[in-house]
Fold:
Amino acid sequence: MNRYAIGLLLFMAGTCAPVALAGQAQSSTPSTTPHNTVRAHPASGHATDPALLHPALLKARAPDVYEVKFATTKGDFVVHVTRAWAPLGADRFYNLVKHGFFTNASFFRVVPGFVVQFGISADPKISALWDNADIKDDPVHGSNKPGTVTFATGGPNTRTTQVFINLRDNSNLDGMGFAPIGEVTSGMDVVTNLYSGYGDLPEMGGRGPSEEAISKGGQGYLEKNFPMLDRITSATMTSPAGSAASGAAPGHKPAASSTKPTSSQ
Structure:
């Protein structure tokens, strides 16, 4: 089923324009015969981890807390993930980072004072394979405060690989099922300064790229049509145990064992 769906319509403060946290484009004909070979990334020569060709096999359980350093064309920032906040989302994020999914992915939606969104692969073949790799929803144990990281969604139980970083207090998203998995603990100034000149998604009246076009054209499409976008050069697990987290969700004490599921795009 084609799911270039808008999962949630919001009204941004001070405007009448609806804002969507949209699900990633879903390919109507995803590849069903991934081959187990290492291919050079089309934009950079980066070797694709062959494990990414088999989304259903990437089910590793994440550590209770872990940290990821994102190196970008604008600078570095660190995301601290607390699994108790959203176990299924934390596990998915862990597997994506571990196998290099985010390498060369662009920050394709940067709306100052709202969110920064990323998580569509730079390689169209990888995008096609992950488009239907949905995870179930997690109960919301945290709050979408500034700096928190949350999976985007195209509706219930449709999270896949897209995530967003909240640039303001978006706690109104809490009651709509958006469960944060972690928070930016350093480099938030980098996040807020990512290139935003193209504005929002075209569906929202902006001049930015459409998710469908990114999924189909990958980094080549973005470099040709949106050359100013910042991108991720690497995402590296820097702390399996995490050293800076208290384990408490922002403004909320997480349940000792939360067992309900998550993805986005």
About this structure: The radius of gyration is 17 Å.
